[in-house]
Every structure is written in structure tokens, then in C-alpha cells.
Input
Amino acid sequence: MLNSEQLNTFRQTGHVTVPSVFSAADVRAAVADIETWSDEFLARISDEQKDWFLEKGMGANAQLRKLDNPVFHREWFQRMAKHARLVEIVEQIVGPGVSVFFSQVFMKPPEGGGPKPVHQDNFYFGPDDPDATLTVWIAIDDATVENGCLYYGDGSHQHSVIDHVAPPDEPFNLQVSADQMNGFTMTPAAVPSGGISFHHGNTLHQSSANTSPRPRRAVAMHYLRNDARLVSPTLAYDDAMNVRIT
Ligand SMILES: O=C(O)CCC(=O)C(=O)O
Output
């Protein structure tokens, strides 16, 4: 459970960091599975997929940027999504009975992992209740300013969902333009390996480029309370990949 101070932080800022949820052994197992899965995925990646799944601007050294739906596809990540303490916190925030409807491994490779622009997850998800979604962002490596940790607009979850725009050549890279930021500034949230940053679906967030020689791998698990629905999603989420947790 979150203690009252942590719960207050979440309620006031729209995010909270909880260190040491997963052990070093859990994290090693996650890294091993990411490496196996990455090799399998790269061995059969199509030219069409390269555009979305590979980092841009790394030339011949192109590396994987992300993998989709680890909680559905990989047994280890499904176990992580069902971790008792994690689930207790998710239900404390959104209410009882939850599923993971989408999940992502973000690789952010050393010296080339690109930035993610400012956005709100609920613009993508389109839930009927904005308080029914929660993103659970698990740091695999220590996430720092140098290797591209998340930045948050504190308190922005109390605002409604803002319009997002996409660059013409990247239709899925939706973002909030500078003039729509409503005065919010973005502050970094470092997370130690094995820790979790929980954020509300309306919280403005972004991540910077990885300019360090170290990777910044993280797993984002997107939870939804079971009585809520994604009524106006921007992307199509495949119901068949929904994983009921409680
Ligand atoms: O890990 C990142 O760089 C971006 C993560 C993100 O936007 C999210 O988890 O909602």
C-alpha cells in the first residue's frame, strides 16, 4: 500500500515514485527476457515494422526502440504485472478489480535513445472515467536525467485532456504543443532500478533523449478498472490482448 504521504503526493501531483518494489533478481530475469525477446523480434522484423520499432537517427547501428504487449506475450512480465504489492497500490488508486489492456517495453538505448514528447496517456486511451486508468512505469535500469528519465507536469492530472498534434511524418507520435501547456513546467522524476513511478492518465509527461553510455530500459503497464471502458481511444487496443489481473 502507499502510505498517507505517498497517497497525498499522488493526489496532488498526479504521480508518485515507490522504490524497491522488485528485487535485483527480478530485474535480472526481466533483462534476460527482454534480451531473448529482442533477438527473436529482430530476427523476423519486417521493413514496415522498422519505422515504428527501431530508433531513428542511429544509422547502421539502428537498435530496437520498444516492444509491445510484454504482459500479454511474456510469462515473466505477466508475473510482474500480478506482483502483490504493485496490484495493491493500483487498486488503492483506481479501485478494486483491474486489468492490463496494453503494455510496452521502452529500450532508450545508450547514446541515441530518442526523446518522447509531452503527452497525456488518456489522450491515447480515451476512457469513460479519467480516474480509471493508471500507468505503472517500472525502471529496469536506474532512470536518471542523463539517460532519459520521465518528466512530469505536477498537478496537470487535475486538468482535462488537452488536444494533441502529431508531426506529419510520425502520425502516432502525439504531443501537446508548447502553447497548450497551461503554464505547467516539467520536472524530472528519477527512479532507481526495481522501483516504480505510478502516474494518472491525465498527467502531462515526457522523457528526454539518452545521451549517456548506459541503457534506460523501462516497462510501462497500463491498467484499467474493470468496470470502465475505453470509449474513444486514439489507437486501437486489441481486446484479445487484455490481461485480467483481479
Ligand atoms: O518511457 C518513456 O520514455 C515514455 C513512457 C511513457 O510515455 C508512458 O509510460 O506513458
Observations:
- The first strand starts at residue 15 and ends at 18.
- The chain has a mean pLDDT of 96.
- Helices lie at 4-13, 24-43, 47-53, 70-73, 75-81, 84-94, 121-125.
- The radius of gyration is 17 Å.
